[in-house]
Write a structure and sequence with these properties.
Blueprint: E1 13-14, E2 38-43, E3 55-57, E4 63-69, E5 75-80, E6 85-91, E7 94-98, E8 105-109, E9 113-117, E10 123-127, E11 134-140, E12 148-149, H1 151-157, E13 162-164, E14 170-172, H2 191-194, H3 202-206, E15 209-211, E16 233-238, E17 258-265, E18 270-276, E19 280-286, E20 289-295, E21 298-304, E22 309-312, E23 317-322, E24 328-335, E25 342-344
Parallel strand pairs: 2-3
Antiparallel strand pairs: 1-22, 2-4, 4-11, 5-10, 5-12, 6-9, 6-11, 7-8, 7-10, 9-15, 13-14, 16-17, 17-24, 18-23, 18-25, 19-22, 19-24, 20-21, 20-23
The structure holds fe (ii) ion.
Fe (ii) ion (FE2) is lined by residues 79, 81, 85.
Length: 345
Amino acid sequence: MNAPSPLTLAQRVVRKEDYIPCAEAFVDTRLHNRDGKLNYCIIGPGVAENNKQHVHIREPHGFNVGGVSLPTGKYNSLHSHLTAEVFLVMRGDWRFFWGHDGTDGEVILHPGDVISIPTGCFRAFESVGSDDNFMISWLGEDDPGCVTWENAVIEGAAEFGFYLTHDSRLIDTRNGDALPSDDKLMKSLTEAELLQFNRVSPGEMVARVYNVAKHDGYTGLFADESKPGGRKIFHPIIGETFAELRTVKSHILNPHSFSLAAVCAEEGNGFHPHIINQKQVLTIETGRWFVSVEHDGETLHQELTAEDTMSIPANAIRSYKNISNNLGTLHIATSGDVAANLTWV
Ligand SMILES: [Fe+2]
């Protein structure tokens, strides 16, 4: 098979209004109070179990970017991940709860909150605010592996014709899929297996929540801040970011396979043109941002607004400026656990 042709810069922009959901992305979606969940794969297939899930950008980035929304009163079942799972609340209010039976702790999150959930622990969430809700999610690694569901999901889904194979492929016998032999299907966890999963205290989880509105952030981390249009506040949230001044530590330090930072800028300010030697993905939280990218003889100037996503190739020249008259916030995920190099042009 031929390798896919490289994406143009325009193909690297995925706008909020173009996001394509899947209403049955996971094995739990036919269970009581789990219906209505919409999952999105913006960059990479993530952990989606249904091969009908649309993936906007398949090129590997070292991490995956997705999204989710849920009717209020419905919830996403308890499950565990092998790699990092990070959410940014864009709209609505969300209750996260965790532990084997979901009673180890809970936290209510609001727009602008970022949460990084430790690997290997059962977590679930529900919308507790408006039905107008949405979260962006980042998953660690190109292949984040399989989700492990609580036993009630695996046992309950069969009644609705849903089964999972060992490699997390969704089988839908109501729609004509043949049921594989029992030895190929995901089984319930034993008591001993359940004990292998991590328990996280409420204090530990709350320490992994960050909101730019509740932290000061940093100025003076980048050389362009002394130039007109370069004023910004930088929030190193996860891992080794691309901040030029490396003495500043992120709020969350354990390796995720990517770093996450937020940039807040007033009208007319942002980043001057620079090169980063790793792939980056922009997620707009607020404001309107004028983004320019040059790569391999191609140039793209693009306006991006809340919830839009853009992938930027490694070694491309990039600049960002908030052009709205309110403070704007932009989240930047950068591939790798080692700090990326920044070069001004
Ligand atoms: Fe998850």
